[in-house]
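input
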Amino acid sequence: MKAGSLASNPNKLKIMNLLIKRELTKEKIVKSTRMPGNLVNGLLDELVKDGFVEEKEGVYSATEEGKKALKSLKV
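output
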């Protein structure tokens, strides 16, 4: 499990904590986190590549692997 890549970046954790609760578009993630759009883009790309997040038709959600990784960090 690549939970370390989550733990090393507080912005990834912010995004994951949002996506655990509900599916969101990139725009809503930008608004909720108050991070610049280009930063959110890069982080979402990494989270998708790592298998923590999936994107369908512009809507992002946490995968089971992402939920497990986040849960493993909240010990």
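quick obs: DSSP finds five helices and three strands in the chain.
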